[in-house]
Amino acid sequence: MQMKSGLQLLFLRIHDLRRLHFVTQRTLGSAVVVHSYRRIYFSNFPLNQPENEVTQIENVLRSNPNCSVEDIERGLHECDILLTDDVILNVLQRHRSGWKPAFAFFTWACGKMNSAGCFPGVSVYNECLDILGRMKRFDEFHQVLDEMRVRENFVNERTYAIAVGRLASAHKVDDAIKFFEKIQDFGLERNLAAFQTLLLSLCRYKHVEEAELLFRNRRLDFGDDIKTWNIILNGWCVLRCLPDAKRVWRDIVRSECSPDKFTYGIFVNCLSKSGKITTAMKLLRKMWDKECNPDTAICNTVIDGLCFKKRIPEALQIFNEMNSRGCPPNVATYNSLIMHMCKIQRMEKVAELMREMQEKGGACLPNALTYGYLLQAAKTPEQVDGTLEMMEKSGCKLQQDLYNLLLRLFIAWGDQERVKHIWDEMEKSGSGPDQRSYAIIIHSYWNKGMVDRAMEYYSDMTSKGLVPERKTKFLVEQKMAKSNS
């Protein structure tokens, strides 16, 4: 089959791809005070730092795999480097998953600046603290905290949020609570915002029971606040513990606090995700009747739940009401409908929704997820080409997950020319191939009896340091066992 020139041009024009992540985030109002990083520069130093400063440091770090302070100090001693918060932060952020080079460089940079009579700003310390906490290096973590504490009025709310968050993520619940209790030793106020930050961190890492117990024990200190109730309710809802969520909902209704839009939204989401979509619909309509003004995200949750239950007409009814109710649909609304319409092959409705999205524009414009659903529903190469052409016209670029989907489709259709072209384009763009790409192509060749070809890709994957998926490794181990027997 000949490759269409339009697709060739599309592949040639797609660069700088990033891996697609689907992240759903629900905001609980201003329950947590988290300050943005402040850029602090040393006096008489320019604000715009040249990229080669960071490049010089990166070259030294890469050439010192042991990551000792002594090695780094020797390597950087001869470099003419102007250290600022901006440069230090840039280097640290490039090593967020490697605590050794990050901490070694941080230690060296602090020593160099201290000897010059100046100090890195709090944003630098916070970044290092976050890296150490993420990697569970708590000896070094507390060492940095101790250094911060001795500097008057240095620790800020961001520092506190990182500390309790990282302790909670390591399941050090008692340590997180103790840090909250001694927060005044760091020059911060032990107030409602700090208490809510602690509860949010505990709930985020599934310590909801401990968070609720702490909340109930300290209610007299901090009073009834709907944002605090929302944190606890959301914690149980994220864990999908509907009985506990219902219990907290009833307590909120009986308390001196009135449920707000976020309370309703959290509970509606929990009911929808738990399969109680009829109750979720009733609660949504109750919000409309009370003029509580549910936002688009709440309506999207109900629509998605109705579609999942194959109650498409009711989902479309909610969808049609959204504009008149003051919560216009966005791309996520359309994506929920398109995903489920594609599953049941109602492609005429999908085409209608796509036209609406293009006409409305703005927050309704199709994104990579939209086109992904269309590609998943494609039955022929021609349909794939049509979707790719739409992507090109809209300026939406292929993500790694979509490349993998295209691989799977053309492998299933036996179009080796297209498979090779997609693979070459992934390598050229630098976005892949990734572990999943290799698994797809290795298993494809294996299933067709082309074991030697599959092994070539396996060797290529391992040479790049990619860890094979379990089922891929099992195939290779089986072959090795047969060869040795």
Describe this structure in words.
This protein is mostly helical and 485 residues long. Helices cover 67% and strands 0% of the residues. Helix 17 packs parallel to helix 19. The two termini are 42 Å apart.
Q: What topology does this entry show?
A:
Elements: H1 5-13, H2 51-62, H3 69-77, H4 85-93, H5 99-115, H6 122-134, H7 138-149, H8 157-169, H9 173-181, H10 192-204, H11 208-217, H12 219-222, H13 226-238, H14 242-254, H15 261-273, H16 277-289, H17 296-308, H18 312-321, H19 331-343, H20 347-360, H21 368-377, H22 381-394, H23 400-412, H24 416-429, H25 435-447, H26 451-463, H27 470-484
Summarize the entry for a quick read.
This protein has 485 residues and is mainly α. Helices cover 67% and strands 0% of the residues.
Number of helices: 27
Mean pLDDT: 84
Largest sheet: none
Strand content: under 5%
What is the general shape?
globular
Number of strands: 0
| Residues in helix, % | 55-70%
**pLDDT below 50 for ≥5 consecutive residues: which ranges?**
1-50
Structural class estimated from helices and strands: mainly alpha
Order of helices and strands: HHHHHHHHHHHHHHHHHHHHHHHHHHH
Cα end-to-end separation: 42 Å
Q: Report the C-alpha radius of gyration, rounded.
A: 27 Å
